[in-house]
């Protein structure tokens, strides 16, 4: 909508006069270089306002704004390809590529994705959400360009956290060998979601001992000029023959891999970044430009606590005030339980792939620092390290999000399951996660884990059952995956360790006519739907593997129909398991399988996706009515 014209003296001054003129990378190029710092400041202001509704990736996007402005100033997107690893830091890119007016819709149903997405914009080079994919994608694009005899530029932006992923490191190995023209901007803010970890991280801290580039505009600029300019000038003349000349450390792992290394430079000096990118992007072979940024840049409270401000809730942009929540999450329930468990059992050891906060492990990491390991964004390493521990007598627990365990499928199968090792998988964010959308939904784990022999799978209905399962997992001689959803549960007192006989279900509502089988979140919905309906039974199918065949035979022998409910794809999930078991038992009881349909679910609220998928309470009641149950209209 265009603003009504009023006399200019009455119009409030825009907070973003430069940004108001920029709606595309072409508009950006019309600005002079000395306007770029102001534009970046306005972009940050805009990002803070957009993010104040909560649930968005604020601090990462603030830190990457200057380098995004510089990249779009030099490169010609969409012809030139700019790739963002993870995509959570790319809000400035979205705003600069014609999506400013839609920013309030980010992560909302029907709105923009929280990451970059090929189907969303021609400027989004890759569809992402998971880390460490940008380098291999960029290599593929450079190889495609050369194979097709084309001549565009390829630049990938990757964070220091994402560089810890095996995929990124393995891609560098090939990139250095293939020697194609491409630029890698290493956005180093010393942070993943929590403090970054790993040997490479320590190496990069060594490179940063010259702290000058963060200390004051003038000093930084001078130092960059003193160091980077002559080097880059020289390099652009000498091109690839000078590759190893610029290493500030005697052994530079990037250079050792055959990738030209430049840096570290101040990632907030946008004019210097423009100057450098102009010179580096056309050099033969691959180049890493190592830029140092501050997570939360420009927003004092976010700079002071970048862990909280990685993905804050709703806040007041002026003061940074936010309402803290008293809700008790499943992640906290796991964290509390495992902190207690480790006090009782010296064999307990918890491994996280870069998700200390999200997995509820802050307290655990403080209480049991010697039995805690963050391997960085390397899910495969997390699982196989656990295998090594289990082989030597520990009882490791891999705390991992469902969606990220997808990265370690073969490690579960090959390194853990074949020898039936006692590794527990505490799988958080199982099921639809909502706002993060298709890349982050955890709706495949029941299917992919169920197909691996020896792996037990449990869906606790509450925090007490989660504890019962953790205890059972320590005692059971083999891998066990305990899967719980995003969201909240009830607190239980310390010392709650119920016995949970392996592979058993539990009747939670009597009724033999139609029986609903469901675990976890599906059970919540089933109980709501079936409450007060005579003849409708509900079973807490808390073990998806092994199924409780005794109880299944019992209920299926009597019931007219069974209904299964799961927050997982219907392909190969819990309902499939029930059908397979009935087939094996020679029972022909009709089964209605309710679950997430065989399609990727975009970002929306969890409730909305569940309603559309037909697994929430009203949807279950509709199915019961179709099966001839007398269902009153209102729930
Ligand atoms: N594991 C994998 C394979 N992918 C993702 N995205 C995660 C875990 C979770 N995750 C993020 S953002 C992020 C993690 C671990 C930190 C990335 O650190 P980096 O960027 O240094 O690359 P920074 O935040 O700007 O410092 C999301 O799910 C969004
Ligand atoms: Mg980082």
From TrEMBL:
InterPro entries: Dxylulose-5-P_synthase, THDP-binding, Transketo_C/PFOR_II, Transketolase-like_Pyr-bd, Transketolase_BS, Transketolase_C. Keywords: Isoprene biosynthesis, Magnesium, Metal-binding, Thiamine biosynthesis, Thiamine pyrophosphate, Transferase. Its cofactor is Mg(2+); thiamine diphosphate. Residues 328-492 form the Transketolase-like pyrimidine-binding domain. Pfam families: DXP_synthase_N, Transket_pyr, Transketolase_C. Gene3D superfamilies: 3.40.50.920, 3.40.50.970. GO terms for molecular function: 1-deoxy-D-xylulose-5-phosphate synthase activity; magnesium ion binding; thiamine pyrophosphate binding. Pathway: Metabolic intermediate biosynthesis; 1-deoxy-D-xylulose 5-phosphate biosynthesis; 1-deoxy-D-xylulose 5-phosphate from D-glyceraldehyde 3-phosphate and pyruvate: step 1/1. SUPFAM superfamilies: Thiamin diphosphate-binding fold (THDP-binding), TK C-terminal domain-like. CDD domains: TPP_DXS, TPP_PYR_DXS_TK_like. It catalyses: D-glyceraldehyde 3-phosphate + pyruvate + H(+) = 1-deoxy-D-xylulose 5-phosphate + CO2. Binds 1 Mg(2+) ion per subunit. The keyword Transferase applies. Residues 1-14 have a biased composition (Polar residues). Mg(2+) binds at residues 160, 189. PROSITE patterns: TRANSKETOLASE_2. Homodimer. Catalyzes the acyloin condensation reaction between C atoms 2 and 3 of pyruvate and glyceraldehyde 3-phosphate to yield 1-deoxy-D-xylulose-5-phosphate (DXP). The gene is dxs. Residues 1-23 are annotated as: Disordered. PANTHER family: 1-D-DEOXYXYLULOSE 5-PHOSPHATE SYNTHASE-RELATED, 1-DEOXY-D-XYLULOSE-5-PHOSPHATE SYNTHASE, CHLOROPLASTIC. GO terms for biological process: isopentenyl diphosphate biosynthetic process, methylerythritol 4-phosphate pathway; terpenoid biosynthetic process; thiamine biosynthetic process. Its EC number is 2.2.1.7. Thiamine diphosphate binds at residues 88, 129-131, 161-162, 189, 379. This is 1-deoxy-D-xylulose-5-phosphate synthase. GO terms for cellular component: cytosol. It comes from Deinococcus phoenicis. It comes from the Bacteria.
